[in-house]
Specification:
CATH superfamily of the largest domain: Cysteine proteinases
Structural class: alpha+beta
Strand content: 15-25%
Number of strands: 14
CATH architecture of the largest domain: Alpha-Beta Complex
CATH class of the largest domain: Alpha Beta
Largest sheet: 7 strands, mixed
Organism: Thiosulfatimonas sediminis
Radius of gyration: 23 Å
Protein name: GNAT family N-acetyltransferase
Shape: elongated
Distance between the termini: 72 Å
GO molecular function: acyltransferase activity, transferring groups other than amino-acyl groups
Number of helices: 11
Order of helices and strands: EHHEEEHEHEEHHHEHEHEHEEEHE
InterPro entries: Acyl_CoA_acyltransferase, DUF3335, GNAT_dom, YpeA/RimI_acetyltransf
Keywords: Acyltransferase, Transferase
């Protein structure tokens, strides 16, 4: 008799044995399995008969999003070809869908033809080819299945460049470069440009460490690069000034901000100093233009930090973002978990507010700056 159930700590030894039987490279360690069994954002299920465990499926969830990832699926060699993998996959899809996920993504080696064909049969679409993705040097496929029709299909989402920030303080430049690379076919994002934009847009200081990018400074950087820019910000105050205690640092941040305002007055950037209502926000999203949004990372990482992301698409239910900060605190996450991420609209607009000031900011970007 077959049993398909959630795994528990008593399954740890059998899980490790299955992993060693099924994979030569990229094996999940005992320590990692133990972590996943206790994890708040992971789910493990196993299939077994009365004699032994036959396979498992491991799902990862990105906090605050409608995205799940099939991190691993394995069936012992002697039980392969009997439909157990298909049962585990179907269970994973149902579980993810029942827990608020609208997409299930995965990676699979180009050499694992049987798994690739199974995923195709189950309705997964190929998103990208991953060069030398696995330990043995093999390429991989990134794939996705839409679990609910209320989310955009792959074809309905626009193609959008992705760039991972290379420092902890350059989310703004990384987000702007993603928009530039999407809007300007000859634009090439690189680290030198990333740091140059940061130098142009930084507030100098922040709560700790290097300053992040001001909405006003980032708007100027976008305008200088021949984009049409509309800056929407809910306050005339100085961004992030409440994050520092030193009077000297506050004076520097204020001076930088006043300089940004002077430069904006001499530019073609459109500045709106009030926050749109819900209908206006929907209309802005409906333009299908790249939008840089300032958010708080609390819902995603449980850190209260200001963070820039790119809105790549939207529909009635979700906002889709590219997040440039691949979290090194969670090594099992990959680019798959940070690109075209669906976030429920209501939750996203709650995220889009930072600090004591409740600062809200959007940069709506177009391909060509007026009068350029």
């Amino acid at each position: 008799m077959l049993t398909l159930r959630l795994a528990d700590k008593n399954d740890l030894n059998a899980l490790v044995q299955i992993e060693q039987q099924c994979f030569v490279y990229d094996q999940i360690s005992r320590r990692s399995f133990s972590h996943f069994l206790k994890g708040e954002h992971s789910t493990l299920a196993i299939i077994a008969d009365e004699r032994q465990m036959l396979g498992y499926v491991l799902l990862l969830f990105r906090s605050g999003t409608g995205l799940a990832r099939l991190y691993s699926l394995a069936v012992v060699p002697e039980a392969q070809g009997k439909g157990y993998g298909k049962q585990l996959l179907a269970w994973g899809e149902q579980y993810a869908g029942e827990h608020g996920c609208v997409y299930l993504r995965l990676e699979v080696s180009v050499n694992n033809l049987a798994a690739y064909q199974l995923y195709q049969q189950r309705g997964y679409k190929t998103l990208a080819k991953l060069s030398a993705y696995y330990e043995d040097g093999a390429d991989g496929w990134r794939m996705e299945k839409r679990l609910h029709s209320k989310a955009l299909s792959r074809r309905a989402r626009p193609n959008f460049a992705y760039y991972e920030q290379s420092t902890e303080f350059t989310c703004g430049p990384a987000s702007l470069m993603m928009a530039l690379q999407t809007l300007q076919t000859d634009y090439r994002a690189n680290r030198r440009e990333e740091l140059q934009i940061w130098r142009e847009a930084t507030t100098i200081f922040m709560t700790s460490g290097h300053g992040g990018c001001s909405p006003h400074g980032l708007a100027l950087s976008a305008w200088r690069r021949a984009l049409a820019v509309e800056l929407i910000v809910n306050s005339n105050g100085t961004p992030f000034i409440d994050g520092v205690r030193s009077a000297e640092k506050k004076a520097v941040i204020e001076l930088v901000h006043q300089d940004f305002l002077t430069q904006l007055a001499e530019s073609d950037v459109k500045v709106r100093n009030d926050w749109p209502n819900t209908e206006e926000l929907d209309a802005i999203l409906a333009r299908q233009q790249p939008i840089l949004a300032l958010i708080s990372t609390w819902q995603l990482t449980r850190d209260k930090a200001p963070h820039w992301v790119v809105i790549t698409a939207s529909d009635e239910n979700y906002v889709y973002i590219n997040d440039p900060d691949i979290d090194d605190k969670q090594p099992h996450l990959s680019k798959t978990d940070f690109e075209q991420i669906p976030i429920a609209k209501g939750l996203f607009w709650k995220m889009a507010s930072f600090g004591q000031q409740k600062l809200k900011a959007l940069l709506v970007l177009g391909a060509t700056a007026p009068n350029s």
